[in-house]
């Protein structure tokens, strides 16, 4: 009962973490995009669940001192997730299975049907299985005491692939502010595994993409297919 009471006390703090991180990882057309980031980060820093994260928060808050500093977050987001070359995938479908609109999207939609929450397509153009949207959904579930739905979403979707997503952020040469954000997110995910009593998934080296093929094998076959098509069009036997 004590552990349950502790989780209840942490509900709003956990919801705030999900809200802030969700807004940082989702693209929105809202004019209020990241307008509360400084407020969120200051509050989150006051309720740290890991003292080692203090320096990460300090770096992010320092960048928000200037009036137009929020633009640095927008610019880096675009470089990481919207660039035409080597952009980081942001949907759990692609991260987990190598192509869009796969099982994770179906799973999120099935969970949404059980709730009263729906995606506002006016502001959120990404699919329901985008990393940012799922984190925002977790925030709402916790706020509305929908603990069963929160655990289902975390266990079936987020937990499986969030580490790979964050790893892609860490390794990207354009990541600076988002490395700090990824560090906070990674530590928070470990904390959430404790809250939900869910184990960290075993690392899988090759994804299944289509027809039970790994991503590397799928890409190899696609490259060969394109090569044969080019040779045929050029009259090469």
From TrEMBL:
Keywords: Chaperone
Cross-referenced InterPro entries: DMSO/NO3_reduct_chaperone, TorD-like_sf, TorD/DmsD_chaperones
SUPFAM superfamilies cross-referenced by the UniProt entry: TorD-like (SSF89155)
Top-level division of the source organism's lineage: Bacteria
Comp. bias intervals (Basic and acidic residues): 214-225
Stretches for region Disordered: 207-237
Cited PANTHER family: CHAPERONE PROTEIN YCDY, DIMETHYL SULFOXIDE REDUCTASE CHAPERONE-RELATED
Name the record gives this protein: Molecular chaperone TorD family protein
């Amino acid at each position: 009962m004590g552990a349950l009471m502790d989780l209840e006390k942490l509900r709003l703090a956990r919801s705030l973490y999900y809200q802030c991180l969700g807004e940082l990882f989702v693209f929105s057309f809202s004019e209020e995009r990241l307008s509360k980031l400084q407020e969120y980060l200051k509050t989150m820093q006051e309720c740290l669940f890991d003292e080692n994260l203090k320096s990460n928060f300090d770096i992010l808050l320092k960048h928000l001192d200037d009036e137009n500093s929020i633009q640095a977050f927008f610019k880096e987001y675009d470089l990481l997730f919207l660039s035409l070359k080597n952009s980081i995938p942001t949907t759990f479908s692609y991260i987990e299975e190598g192509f869009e609109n796969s099982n994770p999207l179906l799973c999120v939609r099935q969970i949404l049907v059980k709730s009263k929450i729906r995606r506002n397509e006016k502001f959120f153009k990404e699919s329901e299985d985008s990393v940012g949207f799922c984190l925002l959904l977790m925030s709402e579930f916790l706020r509305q005491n929908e603990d069963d739905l929160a655990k289902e979403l975390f266990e079936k979707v987020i937990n499986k692939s969030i580490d790979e997503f964050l790893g892609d952020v860490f390794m990207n040469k354009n990541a600076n502010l988002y490395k700090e954000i990824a560090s906070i997110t990674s530590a928070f995910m470990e904390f959430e595994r404790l809250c939900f009593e869910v184990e960290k998934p075993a690392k899988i080296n090759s994804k299944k993409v289509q027809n039970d093929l790994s991503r590397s094998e799928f890409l190899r076959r696609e490259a060969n297919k394109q090569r044969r098509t080019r040779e045929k069009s050029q009259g090469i036997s």
